[in-house]
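Table S2 (continued). Query chain:
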Amino acid sequence: MTAEPRVTVCESWATGGPVSELIEPRRVQLGESTQVRRLLPSLGRRMVGAWCFVDHYGPDEIAAEPGMQVAPHPHIGLQTVSWLLDGEVHHRDSLGSDALVRPGELGLMTAGRGIAHSEQSPDPHSPLLHGAQLWIALPGEERAIGPRFEHHTDLPQVTAHGLSATVLLGRLGEAASPGRVHSPLLGVDVRLAPGAAGALPLEPDFEHAVLTVSGAPEVDGRILAPGTLLYLGTGRREVPLRAEPESRFLLLGGVPFADQLVMWWNFVGRSGEEVAEARAQWQAEIAGGADHRFGAVTGYEGLPLAAPELPPTPLRPRGRER
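Corresponding output:
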């Protein structure tokens, strides 16, 4: 969920070969008490494959704090991925899903034509909160599929020469995630032991990026700080890795996304009209109207989030070209 009301156009382009492009985060307030580092969309890089939104948060000391508190809000046209490194998040949605997502577990919500959900740190909760929130744009007609929620607690692992990896989505070698996606995609949580060195195999038709979450991994010859995103481009069959301290990063990849998109607030659409209609339907629902496109989140104590006003400038779809 994003609290930013301004217009953001999801737009990306593959370079046609390997690059090494470092993206620094910008800080954004999420909900009542969580500040995140936003890596995608950025000014120069809007997407990596179908990944169109990447937030990294924490590690935050929340022993005496409420932690994450995000009231019910709507989504269309995307999948959300909740990935925790420390702490836990209580997910509720309008399908009736009620799940506590913990580190190493995949919370995968498919919005499709429409869903509402809330995210909260439970009470009581762990003293640390650290994780990533990611969005995947749904392609073509898949954007109007029925909503669903998946909670996978047993994900495939890959280990080799000081490297251990958990496959969130897609496939790494023979290890395939049970999470259902709708375009060729990869998401892997990689841990490097101190002194580890080697190479990670990549799919050359994918574009890839690395989100560093801890330590100081050396990826493609560059030492990366936590909270940064290194875009690697396309055409790579492997990427060299090293680590002096213990390090951890998320590898994200996918076939360059062809559809034209508009991303505004919590909606991924194909036109300004589509987004405006979704906003109007959400506002009608929370005002007690008869429309039930998104539905109510039962069990959450509090009011849902109201949508911000639409911007005065038209919401226009754009493609991968700048």
